[in-house]
Design a protein that fits this description.
With 364 residues, this protein is of the alpha+beta class. It folds into two domains: 109 residues, Phosphorylase Kinase, domain 1, CATH 3.30.200; 237 residues, Aminoglycoside 3'-phosphotransferase, Chain: A, domain 2. Helices cover 43% and strands 11% of the residues. The chain contains twelve helices and nine strands. The strands form three sheets. The protein has a five-stranded antiparallel sheet with strand order 1-2-3-5-4. It has a two-stranded antiparallel sheet with strand order 6-9. Strand 4 and strand 5 form a beta hairpin. Helix 7 packs antiparallel against helix 8, helix 8 packs parallel to helix 12 and helix 10 packs antiparallel against helix 11. The radius of gyration is 20 Å and the shape is globular. The termini are far apart. 40% of the residues are buried. The mean pLDDT is 97. The chain binds adenosine-5'-diphosphate, 2-acetamido-2-deoxy-1-O-phosphono-alpha-D-glucopyranose (GN1) and magnesium ion.
């Protein structure tokens, strides 16, 4: 599908003239383009065609992001030397008065200021970067802790509800829409064996032992931008910011920051959670959140990565079984390859779980 990106860009109140558009980044959900402007001194932009299959209520989602970014900007404005253009997502209003437009085909588009001189990593190769990532997420949660107003919209209902995700998985297995289930016995068994264990965080929530907070819910490391010196800069991809448990954000960041291999690595022998990267991220994260987290949240923090990596593997396999309807794939069996890589990562975490708990106990 070819879109007239120049025309779409022209529907927003951006400063600068359209020079060129290129596809950008390695996100799995939206179609993302970098717009370069003709004038050297003016901002570049990120133009996104939003995935309305994944996000069913985009006006609500955009309202969430407006509230969250306004609140973060007001916090940053009180910090001397803060860079409001680089430390927070800035959405450009459209000429229609909203923060998005619909094109003739009904697609939703939004425009963001391109954050200059940032570094984004799919794989983290040093403890310093992991620690800065932890700081960035901790700071993000702290800034949103006192956001006034009603709860944020749930942009994807039951997003991290692993009990629901297990039900949907079993439904998909039973339906076997794409005829793929016969070859997946080992993988399916992996999830069933652990199904009772992974509900612990939700149980703690139901018992009132851990609070619902505002969380990001998609803290994979390439959604955490670092600056040119690899210092914490900005958390992006705010579509899933909504009520959640801190274990989700800690877990998803460790899933990506502490894995020495790619999320979809084919050679399973290369996949391992690095305990040094785990400890460094945890140190950065707890340096910002030690005072706010309660003792039960801390006690179960190390379980977050096991839960979220399990859930991620389950989501990839469910999508594979459904015939690849959710995540962008780059080849036929990509979702299965991703599943196997994430299963291997869960096993690596299980092997090191006691050390993970010890590290958190020492830092918390
Ligand atoms: P997805 O949900 O598809 O992951 P993201 O919102 O994360 O979409 O955007 C995809 C990629 O685009 C990011 O991983 C990042 O590389 C880049 N990106 C997004 N927003 C910005 C921004 N404001 N400035 C610079 N790069 C950005
Ligand atoms: C998607 O949007 P992106 O690419 O940052 C997904 C996350 C998954 C991730 C796996 C809205 O993240 O939940 O953890 O892929 N986002 C959504 O790489 O489903
Ligand atoms: Mg992203």
């Amino acid at each position: 599908m070819k879109h007239d990106l120049r025309k779409i860009f022209g529907s927003f109140l951006a400063d600068g003239s359209f020079l060129k558009a290129e596809t950008y980044g390695s996100g799995h959900i939206h179609d993302t383009f970098r717009i370069t402007t003709e004038e050297k001194e003016k901002d570049d932009y990120i133009l996104q065609r939003l995935n309305s299959n994944v996000f069913r209520r985009i006006p609500e989602l955009q309202e969430n992001i407006e509230r969250v970014t306004n609140h973060i900007r007001s916090k940053l404005a009180a910090i001397p030397g803060a860079d409001l253009k680089r430390e927070c997502i800035n959405m450009i209003p459209a000429k229609n008065g909203k923060s998005w437009i619909n094109d003739d085909e009904g697609n939703f588009w939004r425009l963001l200021v391109f954050i200059p001189d940032h570094r984004s990593y799919d794989i983290v190769d040093s403890r310093e970067k992991a620690k800065e990532g932890g700081r960035a997420v901790g700071r993000f949660q702290a800034m949103l802790a006192d956001m006034p107003g009603p709860p944020l919209h749930e942009t994807i209902p039951d997003f991290h509800n692993v009990e629901k995700r297990l039900e949907w998985f079993e439904d998909s297995v039973a339906l076997d829409k794409a005829g793929r289930v016969a070859g997946l016995k080992r993988e399916i068994e992996f999830f069933r064996e652990r199904a009772d264990k992974v509900t612990i965080i939700r149980k703690l929530g139901r018992e009132g032992r851990i609070p619902v907070r505002i969380t990001h819910n998609d803290t994979k490391f390439n959604n955490i931008l670092l600056d040119e010196n690899d210092k914490a800069l900005c958390i992006i991809d705010l579509d899933t910011v909504m009520p959640g448990y801190v274990h989700y954000d800690f877990g998803d960041a460790i899933r990506t920051a502490a894995n020495v291999a790619a999320e979809d690595e084919k050679d399973l022998s290369k996949i391992r959670m690095d305990i040094g990267l785990f400890g460094a991220y945890a140190e950065g994260y707890l340096s910002e959140t030690r005072e706010t987290l309660n003792s039960t949240e801390k006690e179960y923090l190390a379980f977050g990565p096991l839960l979220i990596t399990y859930e991620q593997a389950l989501r990839f396999l469910t999508d594979y079984i459904d015939g690849d309807v959710y995540y962008r794939i780059h080849h036929e069996h990509h979702n299965l390859q991703r599943t196997r890589a994430q299963i291997r990562l869960v096993e690596s975490m299980e092997e090191q779980y006691e050390r993970m708990q010890d590290i958190i106990a020492r830092l918390a």
